[in-house]
Specification:
Blueprint: H1 3-11, H2 15-30, H3 37-44, H4 58-81, H5 88-105, H6 107-114, H7 116-119, H8 126-148, H9 158-177, H10 187-219
Helix pairs in contact: 2-3, 2-4, 4-5, 4-6, 4-8, 5-6, 5-9, 5-10, 8-9
Amino acid sequence: MNNIEEKSKYHHGDLRETLLVVATQMLQESGIQEVSLRKLASRVGVSRTAPYHHFKDKNALLCGIAEKGFEQLHQINERGANDDELSVRDHFYRFIHDYIQFANNNPELYELMFGRTIWKDESSTQELRDLAYPCFQFQVAMTQEWQKQGLFVVNDNALRVSQVLWGTVHGIAKLFIDGIYTDNSKIDEICDFAVSMFLSSARESLITKTGRKDNKQSEK
């Protein structure tokens, strides 16, 4: 980028967004270890001190990158949830597929968003938490809606269902990111199988609970 243009953008308050875009590119290209404020300043074409006006250190920069990732993921989830042309089962499938596809398309970003670099030592910023937590809370809200529509057992704890669902899609995503699964053409098939397993489990749970109620009634 042209240095004069960048300075102009900086004075108009656009530098932070530019830094995040370029830093995300650096992350995707070379991983977390290669991201630094000094290298970022050089690549954007601003002074070494300019990024520090927006990020006090590397951790703040990484949290800023992760914020953008959660914004993207949340927007993807909302688009899927608001698609009125889909059946309730297709909404569920799309959630699983979109999540795994997002991780597969953005492996370094996904690893940063959900990795120990930010979360293990409580290094996350308040700004990041304000974006990350609602992203999961939206998933809980979707689960509650799926329960109301009969996809899952309505009396099951929506939070626990969401946590197990999240663990499932996160695990599948990691298998692709880590290279254990390498055939991306199988993502659709795996997602469809995951949907079938969850729905089968929900049906079995409902049958079991109904049977218990019937037994209790017969005992009276």
